[in-house]
């Protein structure tokens, strides 16, 4: 923050370091730091008076004094010059400009005789209050002082106001004050604030209902707490745990609703004591229902995977027929520690429950089930992309990607596919090169994901045969390491 007030220790030290006084044939010349230290005024006040004019000089500005050094610098436009640079001012001009009595040192408590205190101004017309002294909102004062008028005054007239000299002119020249009589009339005619804490609503039976605000102040509960018990089933009576009713709004203001919701105080006390919750034992009705559904899903998944791995698509279909959602199924799968297994040339996913009997027979049966039949034998016809690409075909793509990575390392930010194609003199088009590189990166990521989720039942040889035939274990570890590093 730019130093401004010499009454502050930090700003005073800054002004002392940058203070500059020069002797000239016309007298001493001071810069802004020296002016603030000597006359105890803020820098913002000096700039404000230079911009608007000094009252002691009939609205004129103090002209900067030019020396040989300052002539070579452009003067500051704010302080009366034409550009940047440090300005010096003659001490005699400053004495004439700062000679008015209204300027006081910072921190002075002396007020003009028209001001009774910092907020009350008096004259022959009566007492006047500043916006802060009225106790009303600034928006209301601005609206009521215009032609719109105030509805609390006679004939809907506007509040009387005027501008008077500010009691602290080193910051502002004037201040707006409002008639104290009008302010007192408005406060007397405005609807007093209803203390809702001491006036609860009672129905015909004498039961007490409290609003959200009353509950928050009396019991310290939040709106979310009220909303929760408002929707929770009760075990003590029919319906919900927190009974409510719509009552007239006693604090009507502009834009407020005519009716609000209130809640029975007896039910609030029961919920706080822990007597409510929907079912016996302290657990809520919602929690118990979810637990029953979860137990049902766990039992379904355990019975489905009892004989061995089952294809995930088949499990989802069976769960849908039983009224079990995907979210409930995944939750039960996590609790039972079900393992994913990718089997077959088309890499179909199977769910396997660890600890089942005859694991090896189940694994063999799942592999045979995942092996696709030929179309001539009545099997499903393979679509585009279902054939597994051999490692021999992948090696050429890997060599291209490694060459591209070396080129990108050497040229850093300037490396582009176009510059790579020109530098290596490749016959393929620019679009083909980009597609080959991005496609190989996606294959490496997919290979790493499949390898990490295959489980212990699938050996590395079976994994290589299903994903990239012809690859050795050493080459598999190299590709997986590349994917992890990237």
Q: If you had to describe this structure to a student in words, what would you say it looks like?
A:
By secondary structure, the chain is α+β, with helices and mostly antiparallel strands. It folds into five domains: about 90 residues, no CATH class; about 70 residues, no CATH class; about 80 residues, no CATH class; about 90 residues; about 100 residues, no CATH class. Helix content is about 45%, strand content about 10%. It contains 20 helices and 14 strands. The strands form four sheets. The protein has a four-stranded antiparallel β-sheet with strand order 4-5-7-6. A four-stranded antiparallel β-sheet has the order 8-9-11-10. A three-stranded antiparallel β-sheet has the order 1-2-3.
How many domains make up the coordinates? 5
Q: Cα distance, first to last residue?
A: 46 Å
Arrangement of strands in the largest sheet = 4-5-7-6
Largest sheet: number of strands, sense, barrel closure: 4 strands, antiparallel
- In helices, the fraction of residues equals 40-55%
Q: Count every helix, treating DSSP H or I runs of 4 or more residues as helices.
A: 20
Radius of gyration: 42 Å
Please identify the structural class as seen in this structure.
alpha+beta
Please report the total strand number as a whole number: 14
What number is the mean pLDDT?
Answer: 77
Strand content: 5-15%
Shape: flat
Low confidence ranges: 72-84, 100-108, 278-286, 356-361, 370-386
